[in-house]
Amino acid sequence: MANSEKRFSRKLLPGMLVGILLTVGLILASGYMLQVTNTDEFCVTCHVMKPFRVAWKKETHGGANPKGLEAQCVDCHLPHGGFVEFVTAKAYTGTRDIIMNMIIDPYTYDWAGRAKFRREFTYDNACRKCHVNLEPKGMRTSGILAHRQYLIGDLDKRCVDCHEHVGHKNMVTEINNYFKQSPQVAGKK
Amino acid sequence: MKKVFGTLAVAGFICCMTLMLAGPAQAAAELEGISLEKKQLVVHRGYTKEAKACIECHSQKTPGIVENWKNGKMGHATVSCYDCHVVEKDSPMASQCEGVRGTNIYTSPMVSSKTCSKCHPREVEQFLKSNHAMGASRPLLEVPKFQALMYTHEGGTHLGIEKGSGPNRAASASGCQMCHGTQVELGTDNKPIKETWPGGVGTRYPDGSVGTCTVCHTRHQFAVSEARKPEACASCHLGPDHPQIEIYEESKHGQIYNAHSEKWNFEAAPDTWEPGDYDAPTCAVCHMSGIGELTTTHNVADRLKWDLVHARSEIRSGTRGNGVEGDKKMRMVCKNCHSSTHTNAQRDLLDNTVALYNAYWDKAVEMKNTLKEKNLLGDNPWKDGYQELMYFLWHHAGRRARHGAAMNGPDYAHWHGFFQVFQVFYDMEALYDYRLKTGKIEELSHVMSTAPD
After folding, report:
1. A149 and B122 in contact by Cβ < 8 A?
2. Separation CA B357–CA B265 (nearest Å)
3. I need a labelling partner for B420 at 20 to 30 A (CA). Which of A61, A181, B293, B348 fits?
4. Which residues in chain A have their CB less than 8 angstroms from residue B125's CB?
5. CB-based contacts of A30: which residues, under 8 Å, 6+ apart?
6. What's the confidence (pLDDT) of residue B12?
7. Closest Cα in chain A, distance from residue B267 (Å)
């Protein structure tokens, strides 16, 4: 009897594990979860993200525009080529952010220095999802000049190389202000 | 009624004061042969309110700048003060000029290649790969021997001048960095300090950007016609150690330029400026401009085979370019005007010149190593005859010989070049023999001048 029970559980174990993993994976990758975690509110559940949100709110892409449009964090910081690319990058970025959040000390971390790597976490195909026409009516000569060079496609240029500050207004100042506050406010226990 | 009189009185007073003050200023200006009238430009075409305000204020505050700008292509394209000088409040270079003080607009007097790349990304990308960028300022910031030359020897710490003081930095600030560029340092008001700015082509800026386009495309006209003339290069490429402009002047190319260039067309669009617009090349034609099948490049090493600058000439590789490809491209340039016989003969001559110079240099290195082994080299290379001469062998006479051959300047290839190379070398040999024979360094350096010229 005991033997058969053991056999039974042994047989079930791999199946159960796979099942659990699949279930977790499915839930995480479900439309609902994607939606829930695609908002700026979700992003600032990590306290270190708060100043970035404050700076974003003050910039054109965060709603400081006459049309009231808002580009969410994920609209710029995740790729928008295809669904697989999007989910893969989301899973990787999300996991990485959680781990980094536990490792780094936000008070001493070189946030401004990190901006130099903005190419790695800001995607051209994300920008291009909204900015379909790069030579719109009324664009100034200088913009047309630059965008034509970009559209030819033989330059090592990404949107964020030239458009450095379109996502967050005075980001470094906001970060410094935030982390200079008392640790309680900044969420440091 | 009272109000009207009051207004008239105030207006009258302002007019009188303006005339009274403007009169002497204008008279003084006219005496100098300039009549820069103090007038305020009013612009409407295609500018934001903020950009308009800059132009209108600066047309009075710095009329020379605005006059220059309005006559250039930037003015035509409605690219103005605001586009290049306004920075994020967050920028390490953010400060405020008088006109925007108290507003939320921040400016910087410093404009690096990064700003230019917003509209000219291709040009800046090429430029950043060239030795005009990081390579130009490297000696000042990363090479201890060079730093010792600037601050210890030239800057007079051996006289007791304090290291880092104004006088100590004067030699490099007025000399070296004007061409090479250095790391810009900021004063308390976030404005650049004099000892580090303005600077040369390889200037490194507080925001991490590198390079100054306005060295060749001078402010505030940024004329392509200017950058295409040899004078644009000549402000750095001249003098005893790299007399490119002097070589050009005496070359057939320079002769024709001086004879005919007032009839040439310097205004054609990039890549369309071809033989016919000119009938001899300027520096830009061979090294940068689109010609025949070649397209314009801002990487000045793109068409070079040899490194003729450093102590031993090697075929360019790594950060200094690709010499094999460079040679092919330069030959493509020549063939727009010259037969392949002429081109090949010229290129072979350069190869032979390099081989000859390298033979001198290798022998000099060999002798130096022997002296070093036997402890027969002075500690201060600038007081040690052998090492001083070795520097001139490479840095002055040897470069002149190589550059003279490369660009057809016979006087530089010969009299200022190999004629001095061999004499310097003989003197080095004599010192070498003397030291080996006596086992000691001669008491006085016999190199009493700054260089054989």
Report:
1. yes
2. 39
3. B348
4. 155-157
5. none
6. 52
7. 19
Q: Taking a contact as any Cβ pair under 8 Å apart, which residues of chain A between 32 and 71 contact chain B?
A: none
pLDDT of A160-186, one tens digit each? Answer: 999 999 999 999 999 988 987 644 444
Q: Which residues of B touch A (CB under 8 A)?
A: 46, 77-79, 83, 88-90, 117-122, 125, 208
Over 60: is that where the pLDDT of A187 sits? no
The minimal CB distance from B90 to the residues A156, A157, A170 is found for: A170
Q: B305-350, pLDDT tens digit by residue?
A: 999 999 999 999 999 999 999 999 999 999 999 999 999 999 999 9
| C-alpha to C-alpha distance for B304 and B313, rounded to whole angstroms | 12
- Give B390 to chain A, closest Cα distance, Å: 43
CB pair distance less than 8 Å for A146 and B83: no
* Of residues B445, B444, B442, the one with CA closest to residue B434: B442
Q: Is the CB of A145 less than 8 angstroms away from the CB of B208?
A: no
The overall pTM is greater than 0.90: no
Radius of gyration of chain A (CA): 22
Task: Please compute the mean of the pLDDT values over residues A68-84 and round it to a whole number.
Answer: 93
* Chain A: closest CA distance from residue B71 (Å): 17
Nearest to B78 among A141, A157, A169 (CB): A141
Distance, CA of B58 to CA of B379 (rounded, Å):
55
CB distance A156–B125 less than 8 Å?
yes
- Joined together, the tokens standing for residue B283 give 């520096």
3-class SS letters over A7-35: HHHHHHHHHHHHHHHHHHHHHHCCHHHHH
Q: How many residues does chain A have?
A: 189
A89 neighbors A78 (Cβ within 8 angstroms): yes
Identify residue B272 by its one-letter amino acid code: T
User: For residue B385, what are the CA distances in angstroms to B368, B382, B399, B437?
Assistant: 12, 8, 20, 16
- Res B305: pLDDT: 98
